[in-house]
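Intended use. Records like the one below are meant for learning the mapping from a protein sequence to its folded structure. Do not use them to infer anything beyond what is encoded.
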Amino acid sequence: MKMNRTAQRTVEILELISRRPDGATLEEICGTLGLPKTSAYDIVATLAEMNMVSVTRGQKQTYRIGLAAYRIGVNYTNSLDFLEVVEPELRAFSRKVGKTVFFGVRSGHEVVYICKFEPENPIITTATVGSKNPMYCTSLGKAILAFADEKTRDQILDGIHFRRKTERTIGGREELLRELEQVRRRGYARDDREMEEHMECVGAPVFGSDGNVLGAISLSGLYKPAEDYGALGEAVRKKAAELSERLGYLGDGNREK
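Structure written out for the chain above:
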């Protein structure tokens, strides 16, 4: 089959930009893909007009994945069969524990919220379906990071720019690595008021049939000093394990090293 050269270049440019969380310049696109500058500019300018890429203007323009491309990706994700398993389970789990439940997946060095289920009297949360937050200060992100393979984890860590959201936010790579080790030992992660001063979250990883981390689930609610977050962590760990089993995960022996 003869491939259309422009269409092929467009896809290659989108793939390249998607791997650059901080954006790619036109020079980087041309250099990496071996494209003439005029041809590459025509393509990215068209993609920008269609909101497939976003443009950040500065000393040099950088291009990132745009909202239209992101929505296409979310639509694809929403069509996956695993959501047919996950959604009813998490809806019931939210009602049972009386907390807001999220399911999130990795997007670069951030976590994107794919599903959100609330109890009858929900606490308002700023996270919405489709929004993103840093992995290093969310229970979802830390759960995914802790159980990712070492190569993937290192790639993600290399792209993180640590910024404090609250006085409790993790401030650097070594501190995060120490916490990830704790997450691996107990099987769940905590956002100890690291994203928002008044919110506390616990999260645990969900594995696919290939043994790799598919995403994570979390429980979120207002911080209460009397709350037993260890018990909540165990509850979310068990629910994540149940979901993993239903998705074909066979246990540690099935995980890729």
